[in-house]
Amino acid sequence: MRLPYVRRQPSAVSRQPSAVRRSPSVVRRPSFTFSIQKMTLVQLEYLVEIAKHGSFSIASKSCFVTQPTLSMQMSNLEKELGVLIFDRSKKPLLLTEVGKLILAQANVILKESRLMKEKVLEYKGEISGQLRLGILPTIAPYLLPLFIFSFTKKYPKVVLKTEELTTTEIIEKLAKDTLDAGIVATPLNEKGINEMPLFAERMYAYVSPKHPWIALRDICLDEVKSGELWLLKEEHCFRSQAIQVCATDEKELEDNFVFESGSLETLKRLVEEFNGLTILPELATLHLTAKQRKLLKPFRKKQPSRQISIITSRHYIKKHLITALKE
After folding, report:
1. The domain 41-117 is classified under which CATH number: 3.40.50.300, 3.40.50.720, 3.40.50.1010, 1.10.10.10?
2. In angstroms, rounded to a whole number, what is the distance separating the alpha carbons of residues 182 and 246?
3. Quick one: which of 18, 197, 225, 240 is 20 to 30 A from 5 by CA?
4. Distance CA 279, CA 96 (A)
5. Are 296 and 204 in contact (CB under 8 A)?
6. What is the three-class DSSP state of 204?
7. H or E element: which one contains 98?
8. Over the stretch 98-119, which tens digit does the pLDDT of each residue have?
9. pLDDT tens for residues 48-60?
């Protein structure tokens, strides 16, 4: 016999929502998907380069990326921060007021990220990375050949980037963190600069074969005042050092200035071919020929000298690399 159809009523348990039927310890949470822009160190590096060059096209070449890529990354960064970093209506590009604040903070972040990497390398005892070195033009051609080969051979994982700069330029770049260290004449007594002495070098007079003093065995400092001096340009610190050797007052020598050069090698050639004399640091005398050494005269009684040091900012990062360089 066919039973009549009876619709089953759901039980109390089956009427409850599925979430309630689950174990009390399991709670289903709603799922959301966010699309959030995240700033990166690369974007901050691009920002620094654009601010440095004032141009997207130049900065893109410096960063080895295409200009559209660079522009897109800056646009993404500006969207995330909700402000304009650059005033694109200006040529060259200028930072907005808030852009200046962002740039300052970007430099801090990038410096701290480099410090983190250096700490890891230091912990591992690994000598590697890039060392950016500024060196005086009166030192570079004579000192670099003495250590560059042995240093790079001993530390093959270190990329040593050197640049000839004046003392003022080196100090400025250290402050901007675009150099790690410099090799200059000291003492400087500059606030925020750390000095690590390397060596002292003596100074000599280099006298023309046509000059009356060529017959002298040595030269008195006081007598140099009446000579004809060939000096470096004003931006070179060795100019002031030479003047201090020869006179107490620069005005006393003004009538004797025949020519101002940016190179000690040029000064040597001028002395050899014409007349007068110049002052040479000891490093610049190491590779003189026998003929040239006859033009070299020590100073009588008091032998002037200068101290050569490695300088860094007070809060320099690459301590292990700089220590390796000093050694």
Report:
1. 1.10.10.10
2. 27
3. 18
4. 49
5. yes
6. strand
7. helix 97-124
8. 999 999 999 999 988 988 888 8
9. 999 999 999 999 9
